[in-house]
Specification:
The chain has eight helices and no strands. By secondary structure, it is mostly helical. It has two domains: 92 residues, Rna Polymerase Sigma Factor, Chain: A, CATH 1.10.1740.10; 62 residues, Arc Repressor Mutant, subunit A (Orthogonal Bundle), CATH 1.10.10.10. Helix 2 packs antiparallel against helix 3, helix 2 crosses helix 4 and helix 3 crosses helix 4. The radius of gyration is 33 Å and the shape is elongated. The relative contact order is 0.08.
Length: 180
């Protein structure tokens, strides 16, 4: 097979004229090249599905060989078909790449242990705030009170509750910076 695909063109021309031996030789020459392209371009797809892609390309070449313009090179035509079949395979598989987790067990970081002193330190910092700021922060952080419900609880409009929350967070941030 020459590098520019002249042999492919010669074989496909003969096949389109009814030469079954030439068509068989064309497919035999084409299959390993397709496998290499699919292996290189569809590495994240399971090996058994990669062979399905090769078979899809071969079937498409068979069904559409009459669309190849005989005055044009064969390789770009085949490569375009291959590219589209690989893209279709990624779409069908949702671009999932299946890798065994065991291969990465040594490099995946373990879940961080919670800091046993975090709650105590947070409570100490909250205790340094004025009552309203402390109660607003506890309502939002611990009780998960929504901002719309925060205002009436503290006798504030929703906008005033946002401002009070923002100021309380600012005070807490200042305490944290000052404490480090």
């Amino acid at each position: 097979m020459t590098e520019n695909g002249d042999d492919w063109a010669h074989l496909l021309r003969a096949a389109n004229r009814g030469d079954t031996a030439a068509y068989g030789a064309f497919l035999v020459a084409l299959a390993p090249v397709l496998r290499g392209i699919v292996r290189a371009r569809a590495g994240g797809i399971d090996a058994s599905l990669r062979e399905d892609i090769v078979q899809e390309v071969l079937l498409t070449v068979h069904l559409k060989r009459h669309t190849w313009a005989e005055d044009r090179p064969v390789r770009p035509w085949v490569y375009a078909i291959t590219r589209y079949k690989i893209v279709d395979a990624f779409r069908c598989n949702g671009r999932e790449i299946n890798l065994p987790i065991e291969d990465f067990a040594d490099i995946i970081p373990a879940d961080a242990e919670p800091d046993p002193f975090a709650a105590r330190d947070t409570d100490r910092m909250l205790d340094q705030l004025d009552d309203r700021s402390r109660n607003i922060l506890r309502a939002v952080a611990y009780e998960e009170t929504k901002l719309a419900d925060l205002g009436p609880r503290f006798g504030l409009s929703e906008g005033a509750a946002r401002v009070a929350l923002h100021r309380a967070l600012g005070k807490l941030s200042a305490l944290r910076r000052g404490g480090q």
